[in-house]
Amino acid sequence: QAGSQPDWYIGFADGALRLMPGNWPFGWELDALGMSLPFSLLLPMAGLGLFVLGVLVWPWVERWITKDNRVHNILDRPRNAPTRTGAGVAAIVFYGVLMIAATGDLIATHFHLAVNDVIYMLRFLFFFGPAIAFIITRRICLSLQRKDREIVLHGRETGRVQQLPHGEFIEVHEPLDEYHRYTLVSFEDRVAPVTPTELHNAHHQHQHDVDELESS
After folding, report:
1. What domain of life does the native source organism fall in (predicted)?
2. Rounded to whole angstroms, how far apart are CA atoms 161 and 193?
């Protein structure tokens, strides 16, 4: 490696080569047509080819899986397509790990680490990083969907606290206007059904708002 760094547009390929083990205790090359083809070179290149192919065919694969053949002319909010967003973040992590691996030797020298330790850590991230990123991103998107639904059901927080006649303190919520409500609910992806707790809280808040209007 000797501190040499690849150009930015080929860094991911160089990183894939650096992550691939070079020596194995068994035959790790293919002899064909009078040439010796090492798998330590062929496998990274094949993996990168599959990655690029997957990026290109993803729209058709997603349409085949979801059976959604409609024409889409409006972009989706990332949180409203959690699986697609998770897959995108996983691809970014995959590409990012390869780019970081391309400069693993400089990371080791600058932070006084062993090159092998850096490579082992990057190998772990190469295999498990995209899966972890997908799971976390998808859960975040679903949580944001639930937060949007909570805002639609309860209204926007106004920051005003009111004390009821029997001593209870409540925060007054303000209903959303039609524009913001449409922004939060105008998608047709799968949404988990409303839980009994959410319904109870929504009715409870609505009753407080009614009491407030009647008292005013």
Report:
1. Bacteria
2. 30
**Burial class for 34, CB neighbours closer than 10 Å (0-12, 13-18, 19+):** exposed
* One-character DSSP codes across 67-104: T--S---SPPPGGGSHHHHHHHHHHHHHHHHHHHHTTH
82: Cβ contacts below 8 Å, ≥ 6 apart:
137, 138, 141, 142, 145, 189
Residue 22 one-letter amino acid? G
Distance between CA atoms of 22 and 18, rounded to whole angstroms? 9
Q: How far is CA 43 from CA 18, 53, 54, 116, in A?
A: 12, 15, 16, 20
Residue 74, both tokens: 């409006």
Beta strands at 156-163 and 35-38: parallel, antiparallel or unpaired: unpaired
pTM summary value: 0.74
Q: Is 23 helix (H, G, I), strand (E, B) or coil?
A: coil
Query: 213 vs 111, 144, 168, CA distance in Å?
Result: 63, 30, 17
In 3D, which of 179, 189, 176 has the Cα closest to residue 79? Answer: 189
Helix axes 39-66, 82-101, angle to 10 degrees: 170
Query: How many Å apart are CA 122 and CA 12, to the nearest integer?
Result: 13
